[in-house]
Amino acid sequence: MIHPKACFRLRSALAAAGAMALLGLGVPLAPVAAQEGAAAVQDITVTDVVLPLGGTLLKAPKLTASGTRLSKEDLAGILRPDSSVPWETRLAQLDAGSLTVPVLTSENVGPGENRQIVTYRDVVARDVRGGRVGELIAAGATISVVAGPNRSSGTYGQVRATDLDLAALNRLYTLPGDGKGPVQRVYGTVQVSDVTYSDARGTTVKIARLSGRDLGGRQVPDGWNGAFEIVAAGFQGANDRRAFAGAAADLIEATALGSLEMQGLSVSDSDPKGPVLFEIGRVGYASAGSDAGTVLQDLSFSRGSLRAQIGRLALAGTSLAPTVAALRGIAAEPGVEAGLSDVEMRRLAPTLGNLTLNDLSIDLPSEVAPDPAPPRDARAPARGAGPDASRPGIGKAADPKVADLKAADPLAVTVSPRPARRIGLRNAVLAFGPPSDGVPSTSRLSLNGLSLPADLLAGAPILGMLPVYGYRDLDLDVVADASLEEKARDLSLREIAVAGRDIGTVRLSGTLGGIGPELFSGSLPAATMLMFSGSAKTLDLTVENAGLFERFLTAQSKDMSLKPDELRKEYVTASLLGVPIILGNSAAAKGIGAAMGQFVMKPGKLVVHAKAKEPAGIGFIDLGAARSPAAVLDRLEVEAKAN
Length: 643
Hints:
Helix content is about 25%, strand content about 40%. The protein has 15 helices and 27 strands.
């Protein structure tokens, strides 16, 4: 959904861009001072130009048309606000070598207290023929925005556009259509340089260069002006809701953008808790071709001593088709109360496609640790006594100021930073399949080369004990792959795996039943119902040792004052005898115990496969209410093996 303030800014920006393109040539004009015409090529100057463009008012104190055969009467006729001649016809008569406007102001008021004023300077349009402009240039611009209680301002450097179709721009904004016609290209290229934008809260946005290609769209039923007005107003009642959804869908489907590139983006914030700086070297978007999708390169973020960098972030395969379909459905439902239900909000989700990340690094804030305090028997030297050469740092080579401080306070400590700690990630891929009722039918996350200090996992199950076993830095690979079958209401965990260098691998897969899209709505009732409807059907667990078990055995043997081989034998006995007793002493229990004993004797690979005897699986509520592991095991077919 588009927020009303965002719609206001988007509409204002498009209107301002259109204002530059039109330069007073595609909308009503008043007043102009007409003079006698001339058939020869000449220069014509008009003053006090006022141009209403939808909700935007354009003003130009002076406009000069050079190299034109039009007389002032002809130009006045083309621009008459009360002319009965269609704009298409009048624009076709427009012909000039160039149009020059020293100052062009665009004012947009509403909705509410919102207001935007953009002032362009030294605007020149060249090769204006039949409603088309070959090139449009502005030397720069200033912008002032009031959005409710918030105020902001900024500046632009040079603005340049090529291949402008004024007639197409006029049709899109003012004339209704069915939204199914051909795309009408308005701009061939657009370039803006040196953008700086700041608000009263201390946030500053800078863009070194912004460029786009092949911008245009289709005509929609309310016209673009009308559609923007509807979306910006939001909705309060059922009819407003339907109109909002229809207009939003129209605009999404009607907008066409060939490519967009932004270079040198930075966002800084003077936060009292610490200055924030976010930078992106390049942002690129292409609608088609081999480069289709969005790419961000050289991202960095800093706040205080926290630093984060990403080499590349790419998003491909996205589609707003599900969003448009959901909006169309809302627009077609009469008599529905205002607001959106959880189901409707879920269905508005687009197809996300694949997100790829490369070369992530995060430098964590440095921690400081005081040096050990001096012994309690340390005493300050007597007043007037010379320096004690036996005390480090006090003598000829010591800084007199530091020596005086330490002498004055024998309990003083030196604070030194601990070594910097870093989190790194070589690459990551997050892939989503087409949504089903707003929930991706498949999803896969893979993390390769995840490195981090082991103590960051303190408190986590299993992994939180790794520092105890001598691990300081971890190198992990993580995979999570799942699919949702809506009709069968099955969630297939195709692979959940964590692998660590010199640690090993834990891999889990299985099938859970009774799970539908409503589970992912985030509502408490759905999560509560899962306990009653959900079930476990299959489970496969694989454990591969790559050094962790040996470290575990060494640490435990020291704590228990046993040799590692002695402790190993005790664990083997416990696996062969104790585990079956705990699990009910059934054949399956004995098989699990035997496999665990083999694994302990020769740590390699342990595989456990479990399948519910009932086709519907074992309900989660049954698992929670089971009196003993044996009661659950009796309802499973279990196979276990090691090595």
